[in-house]
Amino acid sequence: MPYIIVLLLFFLSALYLEWKFRIHLYKTQRERVVISILFFLVGVIWDTYAVASKQWIFPGKGLIGWKIGLLPLEEYLFFLIVPFWILTVYKILDKKFR
Fold first, then answer.
1. How many CB atoms lie within 10 A of CB 72?
2. Per the count of CB atoms within 10 A, which of 4, 22, 37, 42 is most buried?
3. Where is the Lycopene cyclase domain (predicted)?
4. Would the pLDDT of 89 be above 90?
5. What is the pTM of this model?
6. Cα 65 to the chain's mean position, in Å?
7. How crowded is residue 60: how many other Cβ atoms within 10 Å of its Cβ?
8. 91: which residues sit within 8 A by CB, 6+ positions away?
9. Judging by beta carbons within 10 Å of its beta carbon (0-12, 13-18, 19+), is residue 14 exposed, middle or buried?
10. Residues 6+ apart with CB under 8 A from 66
């Protein structure tokens, strides 16, 4: 399955869960943007270093082929979507077990 499809499924499932369980991850829009940028920057710096030092590669299979710098487009989306999904699931579980 192409990486972009997996990311899309994560994103759509997080949106659905956020709506279904009526959770709000952030108090303000500003908080949402700042936290997303922080996750994004840390991920991009980390992966760019790993790729540049040949500790990590993206062989191309399952990727759409668009690169920005050393990283494929999907990896940039990963840094925005996966933390959103993880925080959403965490909030649901936290709400359930409190």
1. 22
2. 4
3. 3-93
4. yes
5. 0.87
6. 19
7. 10
8. 21, 23, 25
9. buried
10. 72, 73
pLDDT band at 72 (very low <50, low <70, confident <90, very high): very high
Q: Which two tokens stand for residue 91?
A: 């909030």
Place of tokens 């959770």: 23
Classify the phi-psi angles of 54: left when phi > 0, otherwise alpha if psi is within -120 to 50, otherwise beta: left
The three-state secondary structure class of 58 is: coil
Residue 93 inside a domain? The answer is no
Q: Is residue 94 part of a domain?
A: no
Query: Cα 40 to chain center, whole Å?
Result: 8
Task: Report how far apart, in Å, the C-alpha atoms of 72 and of each of 9, 45, 79 are.
Answer: 18, 14, 12
Structural domains counted in the chain: 1
For residue 21, being part of any structural domain is answered with: no
